[in-house]
């Protein structure tokens, strides 16, 4: 007993502050938040009696909230597919070694260093919805180069507006996915490629049977990282469209509006729903990583 | 896997199945196509940067949509000075917030990483996995009780609150980066110290810390950029008088009068510190990105 304590007591003491902080600020607060979401605290003062799942029921019958969930889904699919497409394409173009690779990489990656708020400033200008004579931004550029038919109302369109918000996000994070894939490509031993070539494998067969299987763990990481980032989308919408614009509503903007109006219970319920959506993606991934680690 | 096992069976000559001359011609074509694509993407990725720089130097009379993509008629710095006047106090506060936050979380991460990789205790894997989950949660799921908790703890709004929050919610990622880094330190070094009678703290301070400089650089850069670019915590825990530069910039950019030259200059000013870090320490910046993918 004494021996045991002497060997694992000190390490536990060293991580204890962090364990307590995470325990309180993550798990404790998630618990309190769920608790708040089950009450009728709809005003800053007063309220707070238990109402069960009432707030969740109200939310799922609220057309605007359902619309915001739909927007989040469309945004996530667009963003994940977009970053994976460009990230993979860039890594693939660069992986065999081109002159000036460092320069290309630096350019593709630089948007990652900028905040969504700063990039939102320029993208709001680029995604200006005016068309014709008053057109600015990309619509103007399209007309200047004779592609006027591409001009569109961008994020103000009720059905597909949210896709326009994914464009700056893809611009910003494709470089990250590229860096992941590039590291993946570089991690594949040259002997594997050589062996496949010697076997007479065509370029496509080489990718299909040798490189893609080796890259699938990278692709999984990329999907999980991009997926959880996109589910949290908020800054970009605040910077481009503002919190109250209908066509770009997502749960996070709704949570903020409810918070500012003092409707803490509904706000907490939206936060919990968002957590559940993210957990669906993250928990299996963490369990998978944990198992992999134990095995090695 | 299957491809490499086939290697032994098939003779090496089989792959000369096309004439070398056309092969060379095709390869040259493929190479120029690759460079053309890479350069096209450079132009696309840099387009927003062009817009930012050009628009920031335009005078108020230069704002007509038809001239949106042209260079300024005369290069004026009035937008820059308007932006600087608005943003400079917030810039100072952001530095005062980001530097302590990055240093403290790096220290905590290093201690946790050491224990969780090299001086383990029963259940260390579970503790680590539970910590990691904190990295992925949408902060909306804790925001309502967090606002309450920070008030109860008496942490003042603005810089002090944001330091605490970035340190606490930075624990998972900093722990992860240090843990992956320390996992690469040979176990013999630690065993040798143990044999010499060094306890845990001695081993950490005299063996691990001196080896940790690269991991510290990665973690500090990572925390510096993510705290600098944060908007969500800043929105809930500060206001335009005591908040960081993302708040000030969004305030400047979303005013009723669209002052595009000042907004764009402001976006550049607000991004400059992270861009400088990215340019100078790009290699480590990418290191942090990689570590973000759980498996280092």
Explain what this protein looks like in three dimensions:
The complex is a heterodimer of chains A (296) and B (296). Chain A is 73% helix and 0% strand. With 296 residues, chain A is mainly alpha-helical. Chain A has a single domain (61-261, 270-295), classed as MetI-like (MetI-like fold, Orthogonal Bundle). Chain A is flat. Chain B is an all-alpha fold. Chain B has a single domain (78-291), classed as MetI-like fold (Orthogonal Bundle), CATH 1.10.3720. Chain B is 74% helix and 0% strand. Chain B has helices spanning 2-6, 20-56, 78-118, 124-136, 140-153, 159-182, 187-195, 200-211, 213-229, 232-237, 245-253, 260-280, 282-291. The relative contact order of chain B is 0.13. Chains A and B meet through helix 1, helix 3, helix 4, helix 5 and helix 6 of A and helix 1, helix 2, helix 3, helix 4 and helix 5 of B.
What features would you highlight for this structure?
heterodimer, A: mainly alpha, MetI-like fold, B: 296 residues, mainly alpha, 74% helix
CATH architecture of chain A: Orthogonal Bundle
Strand count, sense and barrel status of the largest sheet of chain B are: none
Distance between the termini of chain A: 29 Å
Number of domains of chain B: 1
The average pLDDT score of chain B comes to 85
**H/E element string of chain B?**
HHHHHHHHHHHHH
In oligomeric terms, what are we looking at? heterodimer
Q: Tally the structural domains of chain A.
A: 1
Looking at the structure, the CATH topology of chain B is MetI-like fold
Number of strands of chain B: 0
CA-CA gap between termini of chain B: 23 Å
Assign the CATH architecture of chain B.
Orthogonal Bundle
Name the largest protein-protein interface in this structure.
A-B, 110 and 103 residues
Q: Which geometry of chain B do the CA atoms define?
A: flat
If you compute it from the alpha carbons, what radius of gyration of chain B comes out, rounded to the nearest whole angstrom? 26 Å
Q: Can you tell me the overall shape of chain A?
A: flat
* Helix content estimate of chain A: over 70%
Q: In percent, how much strand structure appears in the residues of chain B?
A: under 5%
Mean pLDDT rating of chain A: 90
